[in-house]
Amino acid sequence: MTANELRTMYVNFFKERGHKEIASASLLPENDPTVLFTTAGMHPLVPYLLGEKHPSGNRLTDVQKCVRTEDIDEVGDDTHCTFFEMLGNWSLGDYFKQESISMSFEFLTKYLNIPIERLAVTVFEGDELVPADVEAEEIWKSFGLTSEQIYRYGREDNWWGPAGQTGPCGPDTEIFYDMGKPKCGPKCGPSCHCGKYVEIWNNVFMQFNKEADGSFTELKQKNVDTGMGLERVLTIFNGKTNVYDTELFIPVMQKLESILEREGKELSEREKRIICEHIRTVTFILGDPMQISPSNTEQGYILRRLIRRIIRLLKKVDINTNYLCELSEVIIEQYKTTYPELGENRGFILEQLQKEYTLFSKTLDDGLKKANRYLDNIENTGVLSGELAFKLYDTYGFPIEFTSELALERGFMVDADGFNKRFKEHQDKSRQGAAGKFAGGLADNNEQTARLHTATHLLNGALRKVLGNEVFQRGSNITSERLRFDFSFGRKVTKEELEQVEAIVNEAIGQKIDVILEEMTLEKAYEEGAIGVFSGKYGEIVKVYTVPGYSKEICGGPHAKNTEELVSFKILKEEASSAGVRRIKAVIGTK
After folding, report:
1. How far is Cα 163 from Cα 176, in angstroms, rounded to an integer?
2. Which of 249, 318, 389, 505 has the fewest CB atoms within 10 Å around its CB?
3. DSSP code for 242
4. DSSP H helical segments within 324-399, as ranges?
5. CA–CA separation, 263 vs 321, rounded Å?
6. 114 close to 1: Cβ distance less than 8 angstroms
7. Are 407 and 414 in contact (CB under 8 A)?
8. Residues facing residue 177 across a β-bridge
9. Could you write out the DSSP letters of every residue in 97-159?
10. How far apart are CA 223 and CA 60, in angstroms?
11. Nearest one of 431, 362, 420, 363 to 389, comparing CA atoms
């Protein structure tokens, strides 16, 4: 089975069962301060999981582009990817556990032809606050799974949410494929990491609301949120042991092999995997409609880190020609039919890769000079401290192996244990940061953030009036306290221009204008002059929010009902975000 066949089969299966297909959203979640990238299919659907009406109805399905960064250092093994595609289906207050599990079981056994005996599932075992999910367990048994195939686990394994301190949450049932390996011990099960069981699908049942006092109450709108990793299922279905042996990576792996042969160089299998995985991810990030470029903060920092890791691995074996564009072209060509934005943004992708290569070549040289200075000062001990080795990693992207080679060339050693200790601290902080970024995603959608969301629309409209139509949104970040808005513009905005922008927004607020919501096709929205970065499918119904005379945008919401709710608008700061992108931070008044 090819990747496209799997995508098509999955979407059509759910469309035949009353689901509407929706487009893959941007890799940069709109107005969500809790995450750097879209990490799951549910991210773009947050307002609808909370009760807002989706223009396509209450049964949805899609293939969502995702990026997860907390396990970057694991890339190169058989399973971890920073970019992946998530096959998903949702019920927004429609069907629940019986129908969800039934459809998953049917797709796996009848469409993917997975033998029932190769399946294992997990369910929530219950605790003092919420009872065991006996319903899900009984449903699985009704489809022929034996008690030996059903495992009960606690909150760590089989509970989702809430995203913040309070909010929607509930048990999940995870579906695993039994790889056929013998059990590693008497307690071996899906939660074991021995490789016998591989997770292929997760069905989350948003059944409860966690209250401020820690109790759980039943939700009026119960939702189902499911996710199946395309890469993982494709690997298993085609009988492969790792994702790099599938069609998703074979073309770029072959291109890399030809480059190495041309240069007469060799890299380890893990290093080749890292290069190919990272070039796929950076191509998708650069190709996103939001056009993020490498920088030293947030998404741009992750992008820069991935690109520089590729460059360093190539330079490590003395490949000093820029092959980033050649490798990226393979990804663009491979995916542009499924994701047209890659073809449309090809020029931007290649331009940014060339710029970053030139910039990092100098940084790498600076790092080598710094490393040599460190080594010059350890004559007495002959050991480079773990702290200094980590500084080289953190500042210049030098992994421990690279630093160890530099030291060995001069007859020195590196304190690997000290480095590993510092690296683990760094990794723990990164993971906590990623978890912290995700925390609050659902909970942070409140009346204040809705008002700030409307303020970003007015700001965008005012900027285009003052600076011209070259201004386009390049990202936004909203907390309950302030808004942050990134936009394309090639120079610093003057004080006088900012005053004009601020005045226009406050004028709109003062006129107490109703915010109008309409649903229409994407084509009609564009015909009526709506703006918005939206990579939707032909004919898709979208929401358009209009503040007559000031703003008309395609957007998922939520929003204020009237501009009066914003009270007032004040720009706090205007600064550069990255090349060709400016950033404004602003606040609105309190009621």
Report:
1. 24
2. 318
3. S
4. 324-335, 341-344, 346-376, 386-396
5. 9
6. no
7. yes
8. 119, 198
9. HHHHHHHHHHIIIIIS---GGGEEEEEE---SSS---HHHHHHHHHTT--GGGEEEE-HHHHE
10. 11
11. 420
Please give the Cα distance from 449 to 480 (Å, whole number).
5
φ and ψ at 248, to 5 degrees?
Answer: -65, -30
Name the residue among 39, 461, 482 with its Cα closest to residue 225: 39
What residues pair up with 20 in beta bridges, in sequence order? 60
Strands 516-521 and 197-210: unpaired
Contacts 24+ apart (CB under 8 A), 344-349: 345/286, 345/287, 345/288, 345/289, 345/291, 346/287, 348/286, 348/287, 348/291, 349/283, 349/286, 349/287
Exposure of 286 by Cβ count < 10 A (0-12 exposed, 13-18 middle, 19+ buried)?
Answer: buried
Residue the block writes with tokens 């606690």: 154
Using CB atoms within 10 A of its CB, is residue 383 exposed (0-12), middle (13-18) or buried (19+)? middle
In terms of Cβ atoms closer than 10 Å to its own Cβ (0-12, 13-18, 19+), residue 225 is buried
Cα–Cα distance for residue pair 497/466, rounded to 1 Å: 7
First to last CA, the chain: 57
* 216: number of Cβ within 10 Å: 15
Residue 209 makes CB contacts below 8 A (sequence gap 6+) with 162, 166, 167, 168, 169, 216, 217, 218, 219
Q: What is the average per-residue pLDDT within 90-100? A: 96
Q: What is the mean pLDDT of residues 281-291?
A: 93
- Residue located via tokens 């279905």: 237
What's the CA gap between 394 and 148, in Å, rounded?
A: 47
Task: Find out whether 248 and 215 touch, Cβ atoms under 8 Å.
Answer: no
Would you state the structure tokens that stand for residue 105, as one six-digit string?
Answer: 């079981």
Token digits for 256?
């890399």
* pLDDT over 90, % of the chain: 58
Q: Which residue has the tokens 């998922």?
A: 556
Token representation of residue 46 = 């947050």
Q: Among all chains, which residue has been given the structure tokens 């090639």?
A: 490
∠ CA 465-471-477, nearest 5°, is 105
Give the pairing of strands 119-124 and 150-153: parallel
User: In degrees, to the nearest 5, what angle opens at C-alpha 503 toward C-alphas 499 and 506?
Assistant: 140
Are the beta carbons of 451 and 489 closer than 8 angstroms? no
8 A C-beta contact, residue 123 and residue 152: yes
Express each pLDDT in 406-438 by its tens digit: 888 888 999 999 999 998 887 676 555 544 444
Tokens of 77: 């093994």
Q: Which residue has the tokens 């909370």?
A: 50
- The answer to whether residues 433 and 402 touch, using CB atoms and an 8 Å cutoff, is no
Nearest Cα residue to 96 out of 199, 198, 218, 12: 218
Look up residue 495 and give its two tokens: 């004080």
Q: State phi, psi for 463 to the nearest 5 degrees.
A: -60, -40
SS3 348: helix
**576/525 Cα distance (integer angstroms):** 31
What's the CA gap between 62 and 87, in Å, rounded?
A: 6
Question: Over the chain, what is the mean pLDDT?
Answer: 89
pLDDT category, 450, cuts 50, 70, 90? confident
pLDDT at 517: 93
pLDDT tens for each residue of 162-188: 756 677 889 999 999 998 889 999 889
